[in-house]
TrEMBL record:
Enzyme Commission number(s) from the entry: 6.3.2.6
Full protein name: Phosphoribosylaminoimidazole-succinocarboxamide synthase
InterPro entries in alphabetical order: SAICAR_synt/ADE2_N (IPR028923), SAICAR_synth (IPR001636), SAICAR_synthetase_CS (IPR018236)
Reaction catalyzed: 5-amino-1-(5-phospho-D-ribosyl)imidazole-4-carboxylate + L-aspartate + ATP = (2S)-2-[5-amino-1-(5-phospho-beta-D-ribosyl)imidazole-4-carboxamido]succinate + ADP + phosphate + 2 H(+)
Keyword ATP-binding appears in the UniProt entry: yes
Organism name: Thermodesulfovibrio aggregans
Domain SAICAR synthetase/ADE2 N-terminal: 16-267
Pfam families: SAICAR_synt
Entry keyword set: ATP-binding, Ligase, Nucleotide-binding, Purine biosynthesis
Signal peptide: none
Cellular component terms (Gene Ontology): cytoplasm
GO biological process: 'de novo' IMP biosynthetic process
Length: 292
């Protein structure tokens, strides 16, 4: 997947912000989103990147945006650098494969999370309360079990630290009933369609989060979609309910950081070459499986 890109510096274009993984620029009426090879764990960006990670995230997003455009329009204008405005084309070697020119939408202040399986924070919640984010579930479920129906558990987007889970009623207060209901229904439809496609390729989508925004008063899908950074992917062939599953994501990084007893506060320690290589291979593998 080529050279490692940790930061971009594109001259002649207005730099807007640097997220944990993405660098965002303003290009006239559009935004340029560049997915770097930065990796974060426990809300801290690490000093070591994962080669090719940004390209994998971008290409998987493009694959899914295309697959679900019958359900809802998205923010993509172009992912072909040759079609980008002039000042960007001379940065083709950096931008190719890892950038998207997108519509400048107004993001909704809610993240839309759909869970089809009981895992992660949802499993912890269920063990304590018999619910996930206030949604009552059947008794006797085990870790990683498939839920009878996918559930929608939105969260607010925190400026710093972790996002906060909220109830559907709270999203109604924030967005109004019509928009709150619409994004819930669309999120579940996308999850169901994507799960069907992925399962035929041997992949379970345990859960995922997506974002929406308004562009010219039309609701559209924005940000990234069904990537290893926004979703949990498990291999069908290795799936055994009743225990944690091996995910196609940066779990290798998290496990390493836990093993060295890092206190989860910046600055983060560098990653050894072996961990970087294994993580890069994991991202490449899910990219090949999903988009083949």
């Amino acid at each position: 997947m080529g050279n490692i890109v940790l930061e971009t510096n594109i001259e002649g274009v207005k730099f807007l912000r640097r997220g944990k993984v993405r660098d965002i620029y303003e290009v006239g009426d559009y935004l340029l989103i560049v997915a770097t090879d930065r990796v974060s764990a426990f809300d801290v960006v690490l000093p070591t990147g994962i080669p090719g990670k940004g390209k994998v995230l971008t290409q998987i997003s493009l694959f899914w945006f295309n697959m679900v455009k019958d359900i809802i329009e998205n923010h993509i204008v172009s992912a072909n650098v040759d079609e980008f405005p002039e000042p960007l084309r001379k940065y083709k070697d950096i931008l190719e494969g890892r950038s998207m020119l997108v519509k400048k939408a107004k993001p909704l202040p809610v993240e839309c999370i759909v869970r089809g399986y009981i895992t992660g924070s949802g499993w912890k919640d269920y063990q304590k309360t018999g619910m996930i984010c206030g949604i009552k579930l059947p008794e006797g479920l085990v870790e990683s079990q498939k839920l009878p129906e996918p559930i929608y558990t939105p969260s607010t987007k925190a400026e710093k630290g972790h996002d906060i889970n909220i109830s559907f009623d709270e999203t109604v207060k924030i967005l109004g009933e019509e928009v709150a209901k619409k994004i819930k229904d669309i999120s579940i439809s996308i999850y169901k369609k994507a799960s069907e496609i992925a399962e035929k390729k041997g992949i379970i989508i345990a859960d995922t989060k997506m974002e929406f925004g308004f562009y010219n008063e039309q609701l559209i899908l924005i940000d990234e979609l069904l990537t290893p950074d926004s979703s949990r992917f498990w291999a069908v062939k290795n799936y055994v309910p009743g225990k944690p599953q091996d995910s196609y994501d940066k779990q290798i990084v998290r496990d390493y950081l836990i093993s060295i007893n890092w206190d989860k506060k910046p600055p983060a320690p560098p990653l050894p070459d072996e961990i970087v290589k294994k993580t890069a291979e994991r991202y490449e593998e899910i990219f090949r499986i999903l988009t083949s």
